[in-house]
Each structure stands twice: as structure tokens, then as C-alpha cells.
Amino acid sequence: MEFVIVLITAPQAEAKELARILVGEKLAACANIIDTVSSIYWWEGKIQDDTEGLLILKTRNDMVDTLIARTKQIHSYAVPEIIALPIIRGNQDYLNWIDESVRL
């Protein structure tokens, strides 16, 4: 079984609700939220400077496409940041818990 960490940025007011929905629908086993990250990026031809929340979700690799699709449905951004990174190694008991906590 392959596991991933999914990073999603969102407006601070929206981050907790996104996490509740994605975990509630068993698309991720858990979500950590860093309340304040400073984001500087290009958008619509100019540099933006915003304060956002950062979601750190843990899930299985086979759930990523569904998680991306669902996030795009409920996220307020036209092009939300959704990036999956592989978990190379970890506490096997924790990885087993992730596996048991997401939908089959």
C-alpha cells in the first residue's frame, strides 16, 4: 500500500471546513492545519501576496484522484493548490491506521 501527504492551501476561514469535509468523507485519514502561511505567487498577470491556511492531509495514493476532484468541487479558488507527496517510510502502526481510516 502506498501512502501520500496532500498539501492544500485555502483561505484561512475555509481551511477547517475543507478538512472536516475531506476527512468526514473518508478521503483522508486526518488533516493538520497550519493557520497562517504567507503565500506569494503569480495570478492573473501579477504577483499576489496573501495569508492562507495550509492543510496537510494523510491518505492512500489510490484516493488522490477522488480527493482532488472533491476538493475542486468545494474549494473557493478557481485553481486550488493540491499537491500529493509520497510517504517513503513511517511508523507502520500509523500507516496501517491511515489505511483503515479512508474509504475502500
TrEMBL record:
<dbReference type="GO" id="GO:0010038">
    <property type="term" value="P:response to metal ion"/>
</dbReference>
<comment type="similarity">
    <text>Belongs to the CutA family.</text>
</comment>
<dbReference type="InterPro" id="IPR004323">
    <property type="entry name" value="Ion_tolerance_CutA"/>
</dbReference>
<dbReference type="Pfam" id="PF03091">
    <property type="entry name" value="CutA1"/>
</dbReference>
<dbReference type="GO" id="GO:0005507">
    <property type="term" value="F:copper ion binding"/>
</dbReference>
<dbReference type="InterPro" id="IPR011322">
    <property type="entry name" value="N-reg_PII-like_a/b"/>
</dbReference>
<protein>
    <recommendedName>
        <fullName>Cytochrome C biogenesis protein CcdA</fullName>
    </recommendedName>
</protein>
<dbReference type="InterPro" id="IPR015867">
    <property type="entry name" value="N-reg_PII/ATP_PRibTrfase_C"/>
</dbReference>
